[in-house]
Specification:
By secondary structure, the protein is α+β, with helices and mostly antiparallel strands. The chain contains seven helices and five strands. The longest helix is centred in the last third of the chain and has 35 residues.
């Protein structure tokens, strides 16, 4: 039985860390690495209290992992769970059990590129005959594979941003467009985990904002042909936008989680692994 004030939650749990074993989310210092002899030592937060947001060690379920990626990923064990979040748990202490060997800096950068590709439609508004954004993502993949330098990446991005500055007028949903560019620019992040995490979050935001805007615009146009009052038109617009936003949120989360699971099973579009490969190899 869990101590009073603590939760009993079943795993598996995942922990994302930087290359040097430091955390993106908590100030726990460097996490002890697991070895062939067994798990890493326990990392503790002695003052973690059984209330959400009290401070502790954040770990994630697979369903929420895409929003908390890092350069390294581990299967982890949690104890003294003080809060249950939408994506995982906050624990008073945790330890790394084993690495997910198929996830590394290269995989993180390719996954970031996958997410950026999902927002190319937003970037290509009014410039559908110009493939520079798509070509830049291809350069980012080459960088992930060690085929081009970071300077080449920067030069490619400078060219694409020149393109963007010439097409900033008449953007139907500026917020979605800006979020799409943030997802695109995430590929320049020096830390592969930052690149993946930011690309995931901003691609999601761009898709939700765009779906909401277009659904609301269509509802408003349709209502304009009826005898609706202005208040009724706005009511219909808000309802359509809300429904489209919720659907886009679910669709994007499902796609991102599914794509991440493919990576964790050891295959991408570039590298096909055996179907029976273990999710937790290493």
């Amino acid at each position: 039985m869990a101590p009073r004030g603590f939760h009993t939650v079943t795993g598996p749990f995942y922990k994302a860390l930087r290359a040097d074993f430091s955390s993106y989310q908590d100030g726990a210092g460097l996490w002890p690495a697991p070895s062939q002899r067994g798990p890493g030592a326990w990392t503790r937060v002695p003052d973690a209290k059984p209330v959400a947001g009290s401070g502790g060690l954040a770990l994630h379920h697979l369903s929420g992992l895409s929003r908390a990626l890092g350069t390294r990923l581990f299967i982890a064990e949690a104890e003294d769970i003080v809060a249950v979040t939408e994506f995982g748990v906050i624990a008073g202490r945790a330890r790394l059990l084993r690495p997910i060997a198929v996830w590394d800096a290269q995989a993180a950068r390719h996954f970031a590129a996958d997410c950026a590709e999902q927002v190319l439609d937003a970037l290509d508004w009014h410039v559908t005959d110009d493939d520079r954004p798509g070509a830049a993502i291809a350069v980012a993949r080459d960088f992930a594979d060690g085929l081009v330098s970071l300077d080449t990446m920067y030069r490619t991005w400078a060219d694409v941003h020149t393109l963007a500055r010439g097409h900033t007028c008449d953007i139907p949903c500026p917020e979605a467009w800006q979020a799409a560019w943030t997802a695109f620019d995430a590929l320049l992040e020096l830390d592969p985990g930052d690149a993946a995490r930011i690309a995931v979050q901003m691609a999601h935001e761009s898709a939700v904002l765009a779906a909401s805007w277009w659904a609301g615009w269509k509802a408003r146009m349709d209502a304009a042909w009826t005898a609706c009052t202005a208040a009724r038109v706005e009511e219909l617009r808000e309802a359509a936008a809300r429904a489209a936003s919720e659907q886009a949120d679910a669709d994007v989360r499902r796609w991102q989680a599914g794509r991440l699971e493919q990576y964790l099973h050891g295959w991408t579009d570039r590298v096909a692994a055996a179907p029976e490969q273990s999710l937790h190899r290493g």
